[in-house]
Amino acid sequence: MSEEKTTSQEFKLDPDCELRFEVESKNEKVTLELKIGLAEVFGTELVKGKKYEFTAGAKVAVYTWQGCTVELVGKTDVSYVAKETPMGLYLNCHAAMERMREAAEKDDTRGPITMVVGPCDVGKSTLCRLLLNYAVRMGRRPVFVDLDVGQGHIAIPGTVGALLVERPSNVVEGFSQQAPLVFHFGHKTPSANIALYNLLVSRLAEVCSDRLQANKKARVSGIVINTCGWVKGGGYKLLTHAAQAFEVDAILVLDQERLYNELVRDIPDFVKVVFLPKSGGVVERSQTQRIEARDQGVREYFYGSRTPLYPHSFEVKWSEARLYKIGAPVLPASCMPLGMKAEDNLTKLVAVTPGPNLLHHLLSVSFADSPEDDVVQTNVAGFVCVTNVDVERQTFTVLSPQPRPLPNTVLLLSDIQFMDSH
Ligand code: ATP
After folding, report:
1. Most buried in the list 299, 329, 358, 401, measured by CB within 10 Å?
2. Is 129 in the pocket of ligand 1 (CB under 6 A)?
3. Are strands 76-82 and 113-117 parallel, antiparallel or unpaired?
4. If you measure from the C-alpha of residue 126 to the centroid of ligand 1, how many angstroms do you get, rounded to a whole number?
């Protein structure tokens, strides 16, 4: 293992090996280039001679089935070649899913619905990306569902969403985010509102099922679902609920035998539960790194990553915005109106009075036309961030991907904040 390398390094990789590297230092750039042979980054093939530029926070594995030579230019914090990887096992999963797709194609049924579970930092998102990339490379059009509200890869933190994957992920930027289906949750962990989380997961499953019905190619290709790393107690119940809601065919359990055994015990036999080891390359992230990754997700939503975006900033009158949050405090059952459960309060739309309390918060712009619609279960068009609140003039300023006016004025307040430092 080499530490603190500058300049250029060349690596000759044998078949079935991977080069792992990390870029930690701010403002540092590392360029990767495939010189000879074939290689892929999390399932996306590298183009020979093309320079891929990675910046701070990148943790990358360049894997080769056939052997290759790659070059890294710039200062990596860690770079080493690993001979032991679980890629063969991951490829077997892909092959099994592909067989199910072939059967689905023949019988005009639906393809595999696969959920990836495991504790934090075991490579769940990476395995999803790999399986999706292998599927699109075979000409499939799978749906990617991300239920990880903290470190998800669709839209911004505090949401759950689905994406039709039509091309392999970009080596540096991940999957293209064209027209994702996104629901507002508003917190960075499901534990903040379990009733709402389950409601949104059920809703997302319903909408995905409808979309598969309408699109044969997607239906045959199936769904790959990423989940949160909260796997104990309440978190475990969320996983079994999601498995039921999506009617999964297979659950891939990364790294934790205890979780695997619990699922084998509790999940009906027709669902395949498969244990898979985690890759030694998956990097554990500290709390600070997780916060940074969340911030980065929001920053990229507004400002783009490699391809820069130029967001707009404009004022919104308090009187123009219809602001809500989801979930009121739970009252004792004796205080609830007849026929309502105490839990119902957790999924209720509650009006929010604008004020300094909005500062730095993210707001989801709902597709719902009116608060009388089912706003909670309606997907969102996008997000704005409140960068200033003027109490005197009764306005707030938002950072928005689109110019004025807001496409809709039903706005949902998120717990998650973003400090715009641009
Ligand atoms: P979370 O609990 O936050 O949801 P996770 O289990 O989904 O995490 P990933 O996000 O897939 O884990 O992986 C964590 C980090 O490790 C990512 O930055 C990813 O790029 C990196 N990583 C994954 N696999 C490898 C590998 N084989 N070599 C090097 N880095 C890797």
Report:
1. 358
2. no
3. unpaired
4. 6
- Beta-carbon neighbour count of residue 347 at 10 Å? 18
Cα–Cα distance between 287 and 265 in angstroms, integer? 32
Helices 234-246/257-266 angle, 10° precision: 50
**Ligand 1 near 120 CB (within 6 A):** yes
327: left (phi over 0), alpha (psi -120 to 50) or beta: left
Encode pLDDT of 286-330 as tens digits: 898 889 889 989 999 999 877 889 999 999 999 999 999 999 876
Ligand 1 centroid to 140 CA: how many Å?
Answer: 24
**Ligand 1 contacts CB of residue 252 (under 6 A):** no
Q: Which two three-digit tokens encode residue 3?
A: 């530490």
**What are the tokens at 384?**
């704005």
Distance from the Cα of residue 1 to its chain's centroid = 31
Confirm whether the ipTM is greater than 0.90: yes
pTM of the model: 0.94
- Determine contact, residues 88/28, Cβ cutoff 8 Å: no
Give residue 262's region: left, alpha or beta (phi > 0; psi -120 to 50): alpha
- Diameter over CA atoms, the chain: 72
